[in-house]
Amino acid sequence: MDKYHLALKTAFASEYSFFLKAQNFHWNVEGPLFVQLHDLFGKIYEEVYDSIDTFAEELRALDTYTPASLQKFSMLSAVDDENSIPEWSQMLQELLADSDRMADIFKITFDLAEQNGDHGLADFLAGRQDAHKKHSWMLRATLK
Ligand SMILES: [Fe+2]
Known about the structure:
Shape: elongated
Bound molecules: fe (ii) ion
Number of helices: 5
């Protein structure tokens, strides 16, 4: 597999893992800010989830297969699974670090898509970078 397609598959697997982690925190968060954090994590996972199908179909349009199993996601993902239940502020810090990582991944894959002349895909990836910058802003602001 060429470097370009592998980078896109890594971005896709990472985005799916990020979605799952935000949903995990939406379900399992506890503490005095429960309602706020449950809602914030909920907004984030829903926004990311809504982008997943388009991303998968962009990969298929490049005539490459979309990774679509938990095993493949964990092999490819740059976002690590969270198997424990962190304290609420750790959840915010962890999801912030992952969202910043996703923004970087989309910055890099945008450049690759542009180099390959895939302008429609590049436009999608630019939108994902922007969405993660906004998620990072809200997570960072909640931590202050
Ligand atoms: Fe819910």
